[in-house]
Design a protein that fits this description.
three-stranded antiparallel β-sheet, 6-carboxy-5,6,7,8-tetrahydropterin synthase, lyase, 6-carboxytetrahydropterin synthase activity, metal ion binding, binds the ligand Nc1nc2c(c(=O)[nH]1)N=C([C@H](O)[C@H](O)COP(=O)(O)OP(=O)(O)OP(=O)(O)O)CN2, alpha+beta, seven-stranded mixed β-sheet
Length: 176
């Protein structure tokens, strides 16, 4: 039996998903004029990087990818996710309290229990984009030369949103 020669057409990707890559957080979204009640999810995340192998024969070190993603997840754990770019949700940060308004409704939450996110809605899609872009920034040179970063967010069992960022070429505007 002969060993196959390494194929120049082979492509590689690495993926990290762990039981502890989960954050428990509250949120609400608007759908048209209707606004959900405040509720929570256990949001599960996974990250995947595609691209060529480096000198260590890695796409990217699993451990570096896992640990950076874990830090991000831990920052969101046990918090209220607040969208700062929603056109109709007003957010006023006043010292130790954050006041959030939508139409006639008003929530006042301790500031350290809020995560003020640069997104228009806390949908699974935009959370996936936020996590992908922030992970990409924090991984920095470790992703140099790679092709794409994919971030999966599961909001409820079996309900995933996926954001894939190209890593080659111009960097897209941040969350615009
Ligand atoms: N494509 C998307 N669709 C929906 C999103 C989203 O982020 N992306 N989000 C929502 C709501 O936030 C909703 O809270 C989803 O939660 P879920 O618990 O699945 O909603 P249910 O009302 O069905 O709750 P059950 O407890 O499972 O009955 C909606 N769509």
């Amino acid at each position: 039996m002969t060993n196959p020669a390494p194929s120049p057409l082979a492509s590689f990707r690495v993926r990290v998903t762990k039981d502890h890559l989960v954050f428990s957080a509250a949120h609400f979204i608007t759908i048209g004029d209707w606004c959900e009640r405040l509720h929570g999810h256990n949001w599960r995340v996974a990250a995947e990087v595609a691209g060529p192998l480096d000198g260590n024969h890695f796409v990217v070190d699993f451990i570096a990818l896992r640990d950076q993603l874990q830090k991000l997840v831990d920052e969101l754990d046990h918090s209220l996710l607040v969208p700062m770019k929603h056109p109709d949700i007003q957010v006023n940060v006043a010292g130790e309290e954050v006041e959030i308004r939508f139409q006639k409704r008003r929530w006042v939450i301790p500031t350290d229990e809020c995560r003020l996110l640069p997104i228009a809605q806390t949908t699974a899609e935009l959370l996936a984009q936020y996590l992908a872009q922030t992970l990409c920034e924090r991984m920095g040179a470790a992703l140099k030369g790679q092709t794409s970063l994919r971030l999966d967010v599961e909001e409820n069992f079996g309900q995933w949103a996926i954001c894939e960022l190209p890593l080659a070429g111009p960097v897209p505007d941040r969350l615009e």
